[in-house]
Amino acid sequence: MRYKSYLILVGGLIAALGCADLALGQKNHAGRRRKDPFAAFKKAAEREFNFLEADYGFRKAPAKIQTIKWAGITSCVISYRNATTEVNLHYDLNAALWVEVSRLEQERPGVLVPGEGYNVEYLIKACCPGEAVGRKHGPYSDEDVGGLLNAYARVLREHGRGVLAGDFDIFPRLRSIVDDEVRGRPSLDAQAPDKQP
Question: Taking the C-alpha atoms of 114, 20, 96 and 92 in order, what is their torsion angle to the nearest 10 degrees?
Fold first, then answer.
């Protein structure tokens, strides 16, 4: 019974702060449609990632909006997919923005699902370790969102060509960087080539 009371209390606090009321397409109390809080994200994604469709045969899926009311998080995910690769752009409203790339695997005939995948931050660590995208946690202005998506798109264009075309030879290197981070030590793969022993 205490747990249920706690959930009701937390839900009430979130609602009081206005966080749980971000669902898109709903009408506000005056009966007007709410402004899409992801409009800048969607527009910047279209502008910055159109090269996936033009150069690599990706198809863009409709944006998915998810709300976790108890946590006060509303997110938008935009997915691009070709025959071998999926690119997902994630934006947790005013909290975090990231891009991940995954290898598609056949679950059963005709059904492809994302398999092994990595945040583009690991591609940056592997290919251009001295470079930083300037990733920070929100809140974000519309300019911040556009700038981050521009930087992630540039990294994919310059260093992710193989992955976008279905060549996942870099994935073991990315896995090694992730494993080293989990163990709490810097990866040799993430160091600049002239600084490796």
Answer: 30
